[in-house]
Design brief:
This protein has 314 residues and is mainly alpha-helical.
C-alpha cells in the first residue's frame, strides 16, 4: 500500500523536522520515517474497520427495532443493510481481525461518532436507493464504495477525530482513502475471509526507495544546495522559503539517486508537493528552478538523464 506518493510526503515532513529539531541523528530520523510510514498503514486498516463498526451498530439497532415490531405486531424492518454481504465479509477478514487484535484500536471507543455517521448514511439517497434496489453481492459492495466516497472520504468530523488520535494521520488520510476505495473494489465474494488486503509494502523496492532517498537528501545536502545556487543565476535564491529549499533538495536527491525515474516525473511530483506544503508562489518557482537545475546538471555531465517537454505548472 505504501507507495512513492506517501513516501515523498513523509520525507518532506521528516527532512524539515530533521533540520528544525536540532538533533541531527540520521539513524534516529530514519527510524522515525519508517514509523511514520507504518502509521499510514495503520490508518488504512482503521478506516476499513470503520465499515465493520458501522455494520455492527446497524445490527444492534436492527435487533431493537425488530423486537419492538414483534411486540406491536408490525412488519419487521429490512435486514438488508445490517447484513450487507460485503461488510460481513470484511468483518470476517482474517488480516483485518489480526490488525484490530494486535493494535487494540477499536471504534467501540467512539460510539457517538459511529452512531452519528450511521444516521447520516441511513438518511442519504444512496442508502435509500440501495434498500429499494437489486439484492446482490455486487450491489452490496458498490453501496460501500459510494458511501465511502460520499460520507467518509470528505468528513470533517472524522478528520478531527483521526487527528486527535495521531498527528501522523492529518496528512495521510487523503492518500489512504484512495487505497481503501481500491480495496473495496477488489473484494470478491468467492474469497470469503481469506480475501487479501493490500500489503504494507508491495515490495522491498519501496522500502529501499524510502531509505535511499532520505539518506541521499540528508548526506548530500551541501552538494545539492550548491547545485541550486549554480543554477539560480536568474532567480532570487536568497529569498527562497526554507520549505522550498527542502523540497528542491529532496527532488535533486531523487534525480541523482534513481536513474529509472524520469526527470519530468520527479519535477512534477515535487511541484505538486510545493502546492500543499509551501507558499502560494512556490510551485511556479520550484518548477522553473528544478528545470534549470536538471538542465545545468545534464550539461555538466553530472546527470545522465534526458529532460523532455513538460507542461509548465504554477
Amino acid at each position: 500500500m505504501i507507495n512513492r506518493e506517501i513516501i515523498r510526503i513523509k520525507i518532506v515532513q521528516l527532512t524539515y523536522a530533521y533540520y528544525q529539531n536540532g538533533n541531527k541523528n540520521i539513524d534516529i530520523a530514519e527510524k522515525e520515517l519508517f514509523f511514520s510510514l507504518s502509521k499510514a498503514y495503520d490508518l488504512y486498516n482503521y478506516l476499513l474497520a470503520l465499515i465493520v463498526a458501522l455494520t455492527k451498530e446497524s445490527r444492534r439497532r436492527l435487533e431493537v427495532l425488530q423486537a419492538k415490531a414483534r411486540r406491536e405486531g408490525r412488519e419487521e424492518p429490512s435486514q438488508k443493510f445490517a447484513f450487507n454481504r460485503f461488510a460481513l465479509q470484511l468483518e470476517g477478514n482474517k488480516q483485518l481481525a489480526e490488525f484490530v487484535e494486535t493494535h487494540k484500536r477499536t471504534w467501540a471507543d467512539h460510539p457517538e461518532f459511529v452512531g452519528r455517521l450511521l444516521e447520516q448514511i441511513e438518511q442519504s439517497q444512496i442508502y435509500k436507493d440501495y434498500m429499494e434496489g437489486e439484492d446482490s453481492y455486487e450491489s452490496d459492495r458498490e453501496l460501500w464504495r459510494r458511501l465511502y466516497r460520499t460520507l467518509i472520504q470528505e468528513n470533517t468530523d472524522l478528520d478531527q477525530l483521526l487527528e486527535e488520535q495521531s498527528l501522523y494521520w492529518n496528512d495521510d488520510k487523503e492518500v489512504v482513502d484512495t487505497f481503501v476505495l481500491k480495496t473495496i473494489k477488489r473484494f470478491e465474494e468467492k474469497n470469503g475471509p481469506k480475501q487479501e488486503l493490500l500489503p504494507e509494502y508491495g515490495s522491498d523496492e519501496e522500502k529501499d526507495y524510502a531509505r535511499k532517498l532520505f539518506r541521499a537528501t540528508i548526506m548530500n545536502a551541501d552538494e545539492y544546495q550548491r547545485y541550486m545556487s549554480e543554477a539560480s543565476l536568474n532567480w532570487d535564491f536568497s529569498r527562497l522559503a526554507y520549505m522550498d529549499v527542502i523540497i528542491m533538495q529532496i527532488a535533486i536527491a531523487e534525480m541523482m539517486t534513481f536513474p529509472s525515474i524520469p526527470l519530468n516525473v520527479t519535477i512534477n511530483e515535487y511541484v505538486d508537493l510545493a502546492k500543499v506544503y509551501s507558499t502560494p508562489r512556490s510551485a511556479g518557482y520550484i518548477n522553473g528552478m528544478l528545470d534549470a537545475i536538471a538542465r545545468h546538471l545534464i550539461r555538466q555531465g553530472r546527470l545522465l538523464k534526458k529532460l523532455g517537454d513538460k507542461t509548465p505548472q504554477g
